[in-house]
Design a protein that fits this description.
This protein has about 210 residues and is an alpha+beta fold. It is about 25% helix and about 15% strand. Strands 1-2-3-4-5 form a 5-stranded mixed β-sheet. Strand 4, helix 4 and strand 5 form a beta-alpha-beta unit. The longest helix is centred in the middle third of the chain and has 15 residues.
Length: about 210
Amino acid sequence: MASLGPSAAASATVRFATETDVPTILALIHELAAYEKASSSVLATESSLLNTLSFPSSSTPSSAPRPGFARTLLIFPATAVNASENENECAGLALYFHNYSTWRAAPGIYLEDLFVRPKFRGRGYGKRLLGELALETKRVGGERLEWSVLKWNEPSLKFYESLGARRMEGWVVMRVDDLKGTGEGAQGGEEGGELEKLGRWGKGIEWR
């Protein structure tokens, strides 16, 4: 990725989120959901985030993180540029987890959420977060960084394409959801979620 040069993005601080950042992470999740017109789908709480996210065990980047299922990068401006910004206010996040390519026999990173607060946009923060994720992908020996974008979000699609990302037109996202009566595509009034129903075909995995 090309150098950002002397810019707001280059001087910003990007770091891994810690347990004390959970209220900020939850606030950003709600703001992202509101932007995507899906506020009612958010079921996350501070407690559930604490129990499921992975956090650094120390300030050393190479140290093993506390067990969890996803990690979060937060970005902070070097200085406030107008009266609407508070000092040390978080500008955005990138929440991701590792995946795996069987064809390449290599790990990768899946970006679950990328969000920059509206008042901080136009400064290259989204590009900076993606750049850090690209470096992290290479650091773990990965060969692929991927994410999903809503079809109606054409400005984001064009932005990502300008960075070298390509649309996977031949693929369709499939999902089995265990939520009932909430969220996109949920079916109210049924007994159990679809994940539970599908699980009835399972008989248990043996460990040898």
